[in-house]
Design brief:
Structural class: alpha/beta
Largest sheet: 6 strands, parallel
Bound molecules: fe (ii) ion
Number of helices: 14
Radius of gyration: 20 Å
Number of strands: 9
Helix content: 40-55%
Distance between the termini: 26 Å
Strand content: 5-15%
CATH topology of the largest domain: Dehydroquinate synthase-like, alpha domain
Order of helices and strands: EHEHHEHEHEEEEEHHHHHHHHH
CATH architecture of the largest domain: Up-down Bundle
Number of domains: 2
Oligomer: single chain
Amino acid sequence: MQNMESSLNHYKFEVPEIIFGRGLLTQIGSCARRLGGHKVFLVSDQGLFASGWVDKALKSIMDAGLEVIYYDNITSNPKDLEVEEGAREYIRHGCDVIVGLGGGSSMDAAKGVAILVSNGGRIRDFEGPDKIFRPLPPLVLCPTTCGTGSDVSQFAIINDTERRCKLTIMSRCVAPDISLTDPDTLETLPDEFVCTTATDAMSHAMEAFFSVASTTLTDVHAIKALRLVSTSLVNAVRERRPDDLENLARASLHAGMAFSNSLLGIVHALAHPIGGLYDANHGSINAVLLPEVIKYDIPVVSEKLPELAWGLGHRTDGNIGTASEVVQEALDHMLDAAGAPRSLRSLGVDRKDLPELARRALKDVCIVTSPREADEGDLLSILEKAY
Ligand SMILES: [Fe+2]
């Protein structure tokens, strides 16, 4: 599929209500109440509890006069069984609004619970685009990392534990009613996760920018995200300055709005089966794949490279050859300086699985919007270079 960006004269751009600012986690309760809720189902993960953010959320909900059921049986790369158990708990307790607090795992799990309580069935029934037909309960999502974009996106990614693969659910229905970001929550995020989640945001921005479904609106948000990541990633990891962390939270939001509306590409088409098979960190996988996929895409996106180079903080005076070199060097430099993982081997991926991973990626919905067509051999070649 070649680049169709210029042919997209008609498009839509979907975003939830967005609330962003330091200290605003205290507004969770009033958001849930404003959506008509009386009993909140709060989905988070056990790892976040020690940070104190869960207590803040619980207090906010109770201060708003609402009841709350806290559900934390969520692991990284959230599993179908965890989501299905959550849905049973939501129904058993008679909840009427869902709040997801945490990284992508908690927020995607909250989306999964919302899908099941209104539609029934198993979560695998909703794999693919537009398979949800009944409206979801009110949903508030609050990210505590700087990368997933789940708080604004029309995607939910859940692990199918039987098939050991990731289910990509894509629907307008799974974008929440309210996205609430409090950048203060990043202050307790370990350096490693600042790096890997921001790298996920960078992948969202670059893939959205190159996507065949990109538009003027998605490009604006993608480039803004890249400006923020390139300015603040290394300083945020090394010095933990609140302003840099806030910039990364903002980058995640912009990148999320971009990819939710333009979809993604080969990085995510490959990252989903790898995450499904190995339960590996999503941002780490993207950090490894992104440079190789950008190299693969460059021949068909040359006209967009000077703007991408500008997004990464470099002027190229419109010279495509210079921009190509600048983009690749800037990306490598940023990933190295931030301490990102640089090989699939270092993530525990077994070389013998690469052909199967390439086969599975061909079926992932993200491959559809890749700017450059890829067959199984092309995907295998990218995986081998990233190994
Ligand atoms: Fe991602």
